[in-house]
User: What shape does this take?
Amino acid sequence: MPDDNLILDVDNLKKYFPVRKGLLQRVVGYIKAVDDISFELQQGETLGLVGESGCGKSTTGECLLRLMEPTAGQIKYKNEEDEWLDILSLSAQQLNSIKRDIQMIFQDPMSSLNPRMSIRDIVVEPLEVHGIGNKKSRTETAKDLLEQVGLSEYFLNRYPHEFSGGQRQRIGIARALTLDPRIIVCDEPVSALDVSVQAQILNILENLQENWGLTYVFIAHNLSVVEHISDRVMVMYLGKLVEIADTEDLYNSPLHPYTEILLESIPEGDPKAKKKRGKIEGVVPDPSNPPEGCNLHPRCPYAQEICSSEEPELINRSDEEKDHFAACHFAEDLELKGYGDLVEGIDVG
Assistant: This one.
């Protein structure tokens, strides 16, 4: 790992869920939620992870924090002493210290906040778990963190049900900041919010990244949101990564047919714009019995015979300085449309 700016290196990560049947509940197969994926995370960047529901995005995020134990693979993290640690081989005590550095913001703020705890107790709980500070200093920390996310200390003694969805998500962000983390996994943090509130939360995340030097893994299904906040984007389909590229390159020059379909599906807010809406035939295959060859080939308009028999590798298809990885046999041959090609009358630059 020669790149000094790397902070996380994920190698051949897998998460399989056993399928059990019969009276004795024997294992008859596996649901391959995350199927042998590898990627790197640079310090200070926002790495987007997109795909339709059920593709394995959230499972990937939970595996990074070992909220869910992976089936196989390595997750290497470089701590502040520049030591590389394999998160999956750490003991419970060692993992406890790592969790101070890697936190998570969850999709549904209502279900992730304890309704019986005040906002003060929710925000300072990580400090209590790790034995940091005293009651007075923890309260001061809670006040400061609420201010960081645009809430008044007046709310400290209130409870989650007294807040709107956007306010609850701000509280969730404050809680994630309590231990001064280096990496935050954002699991669809704005998908349950109104569009106007989404913009507020995204602005808060961007300001925090600038002020705190944070690194984000940003999981979402809305590509317009990902475009706004991400430096690089990974596209996931049926447990596999199919494309990884700089955000601008991926939106303007996709190399995988699935990415093109996702770009076509982005809703356009301008009523004067003429945009072809994306449509993908068929349904997502059963993850316990994925297709042979390329997972997308039963639904891909460009599929050929080799696609049904040979799985394409995720390799760098770019000759330029910026990497552009794609898992498609015809990545160099297809002339796929970028987002700018799909919209007429709109400046997407």
